Amino acid sequence: MTRVLVVTTSFPRHASDAAGAFLVPLCRALQANGCEVRVMAPHAAGPLDDVVEGVPAIRVRYAPVARETLFYGAGAPVRLARELGVLRGGLLSGGVTTAFVRGILGLRRDVDVVYAHWLVPAGLAAVVARALGGPPVVLHAHGSDVRLLQRVPGGGLLTRMMGTRVEGVVAPSEELARATEVVLGRNVTVLPLPVMLSRSSASFPRHDVGFLGRLIPQKGVDVLLRAAARGTLSVLVGGDGPERRSLEQQASASGAKVTFAGMVAPSDRAAFMRAITVLAVPSVSPEGAPAVVAEAQGCGVPVVASRTGGLVEMVDAACLVPPGDDVALADALGRVVMDAAWREELQRDQRRRAQTRNPDVLGPQYAALLRAATA
Questions:
Q1: Which DSSP letter does residue 198 get?
Q2: Dihedral angle, C-alpha 296, 299, 304, 305, nearest 10 °
């Protein structure tokens, strides 16, 4: 049995937490394919479960409790760039990197491979631990981490060192894989993350359009609200984040038909999809391969998205619009809602695409990749 330590900056703090919930199907798929999996993630204030959906979790302390605020909010790259400032953000980032290194080295006799999600700080910590005698390392890029490294002045030496000190690198889309190869200077394997939807008795009010994700600037929810204000489409917004108050004010001022549902538990995401006719993914910066798209596809819900990053590979070309273009977004969403025949065609295509994210399909591939790293 391959003993895998998944190191990540985002993993559910409890069963109803949406933060990092997309990693749970991957961990369970690895367990189903002969891997013993533990997750190492940052500590945070509030309730913290030691086991989430059958996956053991180790919570590492990286600062006094009151200052453990870097993760589980807007996302570390956003907070580093916009909120915390260079000094405080750097100290917290360095603190969690050090905590990860210590945690990995403390478990090295019980771990065959470290599987680090996000190149920084988890990937960097895994590489440092490897240099100090730690286990082999596989990195998983997600998008925001790659863009952060692209902006680091003089970061080329660091990233090339990371690329040469690991046994494998994974990215969820071709576009992100190519960008990661440039940053790390090595080949990257393309594997989407598996998606598994739970049955739920939850119910949400019926709406034409849905958005599900963190309410942060790069998700483009403000663009969606401008699009909604152009017509009669109703919008259901699921999720929470630092932009929620300003988005609620925008919706109220525009007169758009918008309902904010708040945080949606992982077990209720399928119920959310059943309440909408089309999912909008109006991101204004490149995405990797968002799990929410695959979740919609698994429910047969058409997706209209921005033409950026890995979304181009996941969504029908006729349903892609320029990022930030609320007019084009409104037109595309309206067409899906109004054209039943085209919507049915899209639904058939969605279900076909969803099969590529099935844990039964991807689990053996991920397990084989991690086993190969230990050879």
A1: P
A2: 20
Q: Helix H segments across 138-201?
A: 144-151, 156-164, 174-184
pLDDT in tens, 331-368: 999 999 999 999 999 999 888 888 889 999 999 999 99
- CB atoms under 10 Å from CB of 162, counted, come to 27
Q: What is the pLDDT of residue 86?
A: 40
* pLDDT beyond 90 at 65: no
pLDDT tens by residue, 278-301: 999 999 999 989 999 999 999 999
- Give the strands of the sheet with 35-42, arranged side by side: 51-52, 55-60, 35-42, 2-7, 113-117, 137-140, 168-171, 189-190
Residue 90's pLDDT is 44
Measuring CA to CA, how many Å separate 50 from each of 12, 18, 69, 193, 262?
A: 10, 16, 20, 23, 25
| Other CB atoms within 10 A of residue 51 CB | 10
- pLDDT digits 0-9 by tens, 21-52: 999 999 999 999 999 999 999 998 888 999 99
Is the Cα torsion angle 364, 369, 374, 375 positive or negative in sign? positive
E strands of the chain, at which residues?
2-7, 35-42, 51-52, 55-60, 113-117, 137-140, 168-171, 189-190, 207-212, 234-238, 257-262, 276-281, 303-306, 320-321
Contact by Cβ (8 Å): 43, 60: yes
Q: What residues form DSSP beta bridges with 116?
A: 7, 139
Model pLDDT, residue 80: 53
pLDDT greater than 70 at residue 76: no
| Residue reference for tokens 């596809």 | 297
Locate 324 and state its tokens: 């930030």
**Helix pair angle (340-354, 326-338), 10° resolution:** 100
CA 231 to chain centre: 31
Place of tokens 């939807």: 197
Query: What would the mean pLDDT of 243-250 be, rounded to a whole number?
Result: 97
Q: How far apart are CA 138 and CA 353, in angstroms?
A: 26
